Amino acid sequence: MIPTWRLRAAFARRLSDMYGTEVPAYTTLLEVAGQINDEVAGRDPDAGRLGSIDRVTAERHGAIRVGTPAELRQAAQVFAALGMRPVGFYDLRDGDIGAVPVVSTAFRPIDPDELDRNPFRVFTSLLTTGDRRFFDPDLEARLDAFLARRRLFPPELLDLAERAERDHGLDEPAAERFLALAVGAFTLSTEPVDRAWYAELERISAVAADIGGVTTTHVNHLTPRVLDIDALYRQMGERGITMIDRIQGPPRWAGPDVLLRQTSFRALAEPRTFRDPDGRLTRGALRVRFGEVEARGIALTPGGRARYDALMAETDRRTADRPDADRQATARALWERDFPRTETRLAAERLAFFTYHPVTDRPRDGRRPPAALADLLADGWLTAHPLVYEDFLPRSAAGIFHSNLTGDGTRDPRRDGTPFDAHRLSAALDRPVLDPFALYAEQQDRSLRRALSALHADAALRTLDAPTTATTPTTP
């Protein structure tokens, strides 16, 4: 049997190889990221604090887009075969940048050991055809009819995926067939694109056209992880590859790296065959695919995320008041003033998630362990190891989507949007969309209880708060 995690690792490698063939600039991105990771690991003994160099080098996240709940359920079945479950709800329709008529989730492993083996993720977006801010009833009906006629995933692939999920793997011949079909399902099609239909959808949104204007799906981007994203941004530019205007997410500063920083090279004009209204086939180009790169930091608690969101909002206000000001410098100054400068403070103030470990050889002075987490850390009873952020930021995702669009599209703010939340997405998937905060809190709480039990810290155990849970923020 080829176990689930090996299927996942093999799929991620093959998808990366395929995408590098289709988008050569992605191969350059991998080369630069690998060089920088080796350099950082060579000079910084703490480079593996948020994941070993082997994990970071292998790490990828992909992005795909589907048009209907049925297509989303089928995609979920393929990813379930790889041990990937839907985590988090992201609504990209309501941001102040561009028109992106999708809601999204991310399929990924959730067990810490599985994440260490291979943390492959796929950010998966669903087109909201019923949202009247984007689609009138006539266009919705024609779009739904077009989507209903296509089949993204062959029945054989779905049958193998069900087997793999049920049996936690596949035998070697079945695994090989599954991987070939799965990679094929996400390969860019050579089938001609209906020029008039694609152009009609593109006036609404380039994302809508990329989803509903073609008969297949494809990898929209693949993303390696890098340990110094600022160096990568500079070096890609030096190699003549045009990057988007800035790095999305928190600023670079002297304190702890948290959440997620992302950037990408701009979508390239790729040759495609079009079918014109008179039936002739002509050549043209589409700009829909790009190469993204990310730097991951520490997962924040709901309180930490609220602090982050407030600082980002204040950065927006100050930048709007002074358009000539450097956004990174503005954000950095705010972070240095208002965000904890050390991991210890993040842990003590319950602003970030950690796993906790007892210091069993601490010199004994006859005292009992204190009850407060801050005192347990300060007095050397516990050590805290940060949990890497495994998820996404709606604002950053929307920013990168918009940076690679051909235009702003159209959205009628006078109309109401279709209500959508994690519960509705769970119903569409027929699988629960998991709360990332709850996953981090469960891992943290489990480690803390074990550590306190090992120390016989009875008072601390009695005052230990319940796991921190909250609804995933949905506003970009």
Notes on the protein architecture:
With 476 residues, the chain is an alpha+beta fold. It is 46% helix and 15% strand. The chain is built from 19 helices and 14 strands. The strands form 4 sheets. It has a 7-stranded mixed β-sheet with strand order 3-4-5-2-8-12-9, with helices on both faces. A hairpin with a 5-residue loop joins strand 10 and strand 11. Helix 1 packs parallel to helix 8 and helix 4 crosses helix 7. This is 2-oxoadipate dioxygenase/decarboxylase. Belongs to the 2-oxoadipate dioxygenase/decarboxylase family. Pfam families: HGLS.
CATH superfamily caption of the largest domain: Uncharacterised protein PF07063, DUF1338
Percent strand equals 15-25%
Reported CATH architecture of the largest domain: Roll
Major beta sheet, strand line-up: 3-4-5-2-8-12-9
Question: Which whole number gives the mean pLDDT?
Answer: 89
Shape field: globular
Unreliable residue runs: 466-476
End-to-end Cα distance, whole Å, is 42 Å
Give me the count of strands.
14
Q: Strand count, sense and closure of the main sheet?
A: 7 strands, mixed
Count helical runs: 19
> Would you tell me which CATH topology of the largest domain applies?
2,3-Dihydroxybiphenyl 1,2-Dioxygenase, domain 1
- Rg, Å, rounded: 23 Å
| Domain module tally | 2
Helix/strand/pairing category: alpha+beta
CATH class (first level) name of the largest domain: Alpha Beta
Helix content: 40-55%
